[in-house]
Design a protein that fits this description.
This protein has 221 residues and is an all-alpha fold. It has one domain. The protein has nine helices and no strands. The chain is elongated, with a radius of gyration of 18 Å.
Length: 221
């Protein structure tokens, strides 16, 4: 646990010392959402109907911006090899890095989402469903993205390859996240969608650290 906390503290310090990644993610998220009313018009009912999908797609794309650098800097300076040689399991180090990625990208997106949702005229009853879905969905995005980031480590034009690898796995969370908000707005229960999102997250927590660690070991050989 001490080594886990040390890795989290170290990566958080590096992330905040650089400072631009989190701001860039939130800025891209806000700009992507704000552009849609200019393209489709300011009609409130139209915006309210498409708001969940727009916010989820923008959050999905924003979370991918910093995935390529999840392991890249440690790979380039040799820190990743030292982590692999430490007595701590590499899977624990992966979980620590995924946690830091979520804290610096997913959490800011969740904080920014309510303001953007209100700007898109999303009904208040759908707002809490949107936040709950993002709380369950954004950690899943980071966990799946960690596998893709490990697989493209050291590859040329890794960003394009990373998108091709992880986007198909992001689609189920996108579908059920949007469906959870639409169900509440339409007057139905969203318990089924929330349960499925929770199951996706639990499955990712169980499988992704091991898959990502295996891909990292392969890249380091």
């Amino acid at each position: 646990m001490k080594k886990f906390i040390f890795i989290v503290h170290r990566d958080l310090f590096l992330a905040f010392s650089q400072g631009m990644d989190s701001l860039m993610v939130v800025a891209f998220f806000a700009i992507a959402v704000v552009l849609f009313p200019f393209g489709i018009g300011p009609e409130p009912n139209t915006l309210a109907r498409i708001a969940p999908g727009i916010i989820w797609v923008a959050a999905l794309m924003s979370s991918m911006l910093s995935l390529e650098r999840l392991y890249q800097s440690d790979f380039e300076d040799g820190s990743l090899e030292l982590l692999a040689l430490q007595p701590i399991a590499l899977e624990i180090a992966v979980v620590a890095k995924v946690l830091v990625h979520w804290l610096t990208t997913g959490l800011p997106l969740i904080i920014a989402a309510p303001l953007l949702a209100l700007m898109m005229n999303l009904p208040e009853e759908g707002l809490w469903s949107l936040i709950a879905g993002l709380c369950l969905g954004t950690p899943y995005l980071s966990l799946i993205g960690a596998i893709g980031a490990a697989l493209i480590l050291g590859a040329r034009r890794g960003g394009v390859l990373l998108s091709l690898l992880v986007l198909p796995l992001y689609i189920p969370v996108l579908i059920f996240g949007v469906s959870a908000v639409d169900a509440i707005i339409s007057g139905f229960s969203n318990k089924r969608q929330v349960r499925i999102l929770s199951e996706f997250l639990l499955a990712a927590l169980a499988l992704c650290p091991w898959a990502s660690a295996a891909a990292l070991r392969q890249s380091l050989e």
